[in-house]
Design a protein that fits this description.
By secondary structure, the chain is α/β, with parallel strands linked by helices. The chain has two domains: 243 residues, Ribonuclease Z/Hydroxyacylglutathione hydrolase-like (Metallo-beta-lactamase, Chain A, 4-Layer Sandwich); 148 residues, 3-Layer(aba) Sandwich (Rossmann fold). It is built from twelve helices and 22 strands. The strands form five sheets. It has a seven-stranded mixed sheet. Strands 17, 18, 19, 20, 21 and 22 form a six-stranded parallel sheet that branches. Helix 10 links the parallel strand 19 and strand 20. The protein is elongated and about 80 Å long. The N and C termini lie far apart (50 Å). The structure holds flavin mononucleotide. The site of flavin mononucleotide has 19 residues, from helix 8 and strand 20. InterPro entries: Flavodoxin/NO_synth (IPR008254), Flavoprotein-like_sf (IPR029039), Metallo-B-lactamas (IPR001279), ODP_dom (IPR045761), RibonucZ/Hydroxyglut_hydro (IPR036866), Rubredoxin-O_OxRdtase (IPR016440).
Length: 401
């Protein structure tokens, strides 16, 4: 059901407590999500965004309880991705003559998905749409996170509708940031940034600075997923600026997979050495075959360095490790350091291949890696502890630009 967030703006989205997979199987979530759509009533009425296709009929029914659909004058599509536009066909079948305001790239994406010739109106940064008592100002935000992405700003209520930027996959009974568990909110926001926005960090910084330079007062930030930022709304903007500047904490994360536990024992001994050399560092270990990879990417995002390990199988690495390396290549983390390790039986290709792929993914690879034959004996374990310690020393001495 709709929920009034100001005298003129209602949230008319859908809270989805159930979904655990997003973008196919790519993004896993623990806490569901919401698809946020907003109804803005001036003298004229605009609907900003819609919801995901499976909830289309429910969305339209609820919207009809909020307003006679004929009273909607404009539709704004900030982003064409189906989690926000999937309900448009159901809505447009009722009000097919209503204009849809969006970027030129969004028209391409909506036409490409729904093959409909709706009344599209192309908007650019600075264009305004009068709702009589207040205005919507459009701000293109290409690659945050698709070429079509756009924000819009409501002048009277001083609300920034930021679409996917500043969002989180978090289902909650509350709509506002000050009413939910702060640790959960932070965890979901950083996970979202790490997994969706990291590749576009330079654009994030540029866009935020551009918006801040406009000096628009912002009383609320309404993203298209999760919680609305009403208490100190600029906190998430400032946090994004920090995350966009190659964020790292004093964390070293060890990612590995193993068939017969040799590589696991190496991982644990490397961790022991790292902890001994830098007790203040957070050290976390993930068997990537058994871990949630979206969570793992958030841990990599927080790390200043990672170690990646695999046993050698059929002259290569285990497929779970290859998948994580491919994921990290796409996310293009900056200014992070790395090394490879792993157990092997005779040819031992995995470590060299992991080092290569870490380098290709933009990590500064600090050494040739550590390979040990079969399941390490006491001497092998001691070597892992020693290498863990020396890795910390290398971290201190190596400056990565
Ligand atoms: C199916 C299979 C294929 C393997 N292929 C290779 C190989 O091509 N080269 C190699 O050096 N070792 C190979 N090994 C040996 C493992 O790398 C070795 O047993 C190693 O100690 C396993 O490490 P782990 O205990 O971390 O799984 C293979 C083992 C298995 C089970």
């Amino acid at each position: 059901m709709g929920f009034r967030i100001t005298d003129t703006v209602s949230w008319v989205g859908k809270v989805d407590w159930e979904t655990r997979k997003f973008h196919g199987e790519e993004y896993t979530m623990q806490r569901g999500t919401s698809y946020n759509a907003y109804l803005v009533r001036g003298g004229k009425t605009a609907l900003i965004d819609a919801v995901w296709g499976p909830f289309a009929e429910e969305f339209v029914e609820n919207l009809q309880k909020e307003i006679d659909l004929d009273e909607i004058d404009f539709i704004v599509a900030n982003h064409g991705e189906t989690d926000h536009s999937g309900a448009l066909p159901a809505l447009m079948s009722r009000i097919s003559d209503r204009p849809i305001y969006c970027t030129a790239n969004c028209i391409k994406s909506l036409k490409g998905q729904y093959h409909q010739d709706w009344d599209f109106r192309t908007v650019k940064t600075g264009d305004k749409l009068s709702l009589e008592s207040q205005e919507l100002i459009f701000i293109e935000a290409p690659m945050l996170h698709w070429p079509d992405s756009m924000f819009c700003y409501l002048t009277g209520d001083k609300i920034l509708f930021s679409n996917d930027a500043f969002g989180q996959h978090l289902a909650a009974e509350h709509r506002f940031n000050d009413l939910v568990d702060q640790a959960e909110l932070y965890q979901e926001a950083i996970k979202y940034y790490a997994n969706i926005l990291t590749p576009f960090s330079m654009l994030v910084e540029k866009k935020i600075k551009e918006i801040l330079a406009l000096n628009l007062p912002v009383e609320m930030i309404c993203p298209s997923h999760g919680i609305i930022w009403r208490q100190d709304p600029l906190q998430i903007v400032n946090t994004y600026l920090k995350w966009a500047a190659a964020w790292q904490e004093n964390q070293i994360t060890i990612l590995y997979d193993t068939m017969w536990n040799g590589t696991r024992r190496m991982a644990e001994s490397l961790a022991e050495g790292i902890h001994a050399a830098d007790p203040s560092a957070t050290v976390k270990l993930y068997n990537v075959a058994r871990s949630d990879k979206t969570e793992v990417m958030a841990e990599v995002f927080k790390s200043r360095a990672i170690l990646v390990g695999s046993s050698t199988i059929n002259r290569g690495m285990l497929s779970s490790v290859a998948a994580v390396l491919e994921e990290m290549r796409g996310l293009a983390f900056k200014k992070k350091k790395a090394m490879a390790f792993g157990a092997y039986g005779w040819s031992g290709e995995a470590v060299r291949q992991i080092s290569q792929r870490l380098g290709d993914a933009g990590f500064a690879v600090l050494n040739d890696g550590l390979r040990l034959l079969w399941n390490p004996d006491d001497g092998g374990i001691e070597e892992c502890v020693r290498v863990g310690k020396s890795f910390v020393e290398q971290l201190k001495s190596d400056v990565v630009s």
